[in-house]
Amino acid sequence: MTERLRLTDAVIRYGDITAVDGVSLTAEAGGMVFITGSNGSGKSTLTKGIAGLLPLSSGSLVRTARMSYVPQYEEADRDFPARAGEIVLTGTQRPGKLFHTRRDREQALSAMEALKIDGLADKEIRTLSGGQLRRVFLARAICGNPELLLLDEPCAGLDAQSHSTLFGILRGLLEGGCAVVMVTHDISDIDGIPEGRIIRMSHGKISHSITHGEHGHE
Ligand SMILES: Nc1ncnc2c1ncn2[C@@H]1O[C@H](COP(=O)(O)OP(=O)(O)O)[C@@H](O)[C@H]1O
Ligand SMILES: [Mg+2]
Fold first, then answer.
1. Does the pTM exceed 0.85?
2. How many angstroms separate the CA atoms of 218 and 47, rounded?
3. What is the tens place of the pLDDT at every residue in 68-82?
4. Do the beta carbons of residue 32 and residue 196 sit within 8 Å?
5. Which of 12, 26, 118, 162 could join 112 in a cystine, given CB atoms 3.0 to 4.6 angstroms apart?
């Protein structure tokens, strides 16, 4: 299997606080990894480290370049003056690419249709509800056709229908060879995909790792 992510002995600090303390993690093409654990256990810091937004104090990170990251909702800047459709389209951007192509626009539209927000394309994001804005960021993340998708608590605030829509999209991405790393509080999310791994974090370390599904055990 093609590896999309390999994190080895990662340590991430904020000054004197060690938020991630020696975490190793891999994700393969088509593989699903759930990260769970109590508040403050280091889940968001870990995903930011994987996304390249925080430097590792030590350890190593190897991952595919085609990655999308959706931060925890509380960190989103909703006063940014932009329309939903423009935000989604930025997900097709790549370094060195100057213009959006017709195909980019088609991909952005189909991601918005998949998340049932195509009717919101012309709305300013500050006028959207929390659940709508969350779906805008998810559409942005999937329209670039990522090989690695990092989601930090994407389901908080989603209604049941949006939740099942999201899991339908995730199953499609996994079948297409994307690796998905998702922070969740709700362990029953694992029922939404055929197989995956659950990693529990505690005080910056991995305290448990279990495999679920066809080739693993509960
Ligand atoms: N920007 C920051 N500056 C200093 N400490 C931080 C910062 N962000 C998080 N922390 C601390 O790092 C630890 C892990 O936080 P976080 O990764 O957000 O946990 P989780 O996502 O599991 O709730 C906590 O002790 C938190 O207070
Ligand atoms: Mg968090």
1. yes
2. 25
3. 999 997 677 778 889
4. yes
5. 118
CA of 184 to the centre of ligand 2 (A): 9
In a domain, 156, yes or no: yes
104-126: per-residue pLDDT in tens? 999 999 999 999 999 999 999 99
140 and 184 share one domain: no
Element (H, E) at 135: helix 130-143
Q: Tell me the best of 13, 16, 41, 45 to mutate to test the pocket of ligand 1, counting ligand atoms within 8 Å of each CB and taking the most.
A: 45
Q: What's 30's DSSP letter?
A: T
62 and 31 in one domain?
A: yes
Residue of 17, 57, 181 with the most ligand 1 atoms within 8 Å of its CB, for mutation = 17
Q: Which atom of ligand 1 is nearest to the CA of 183?
A: 21
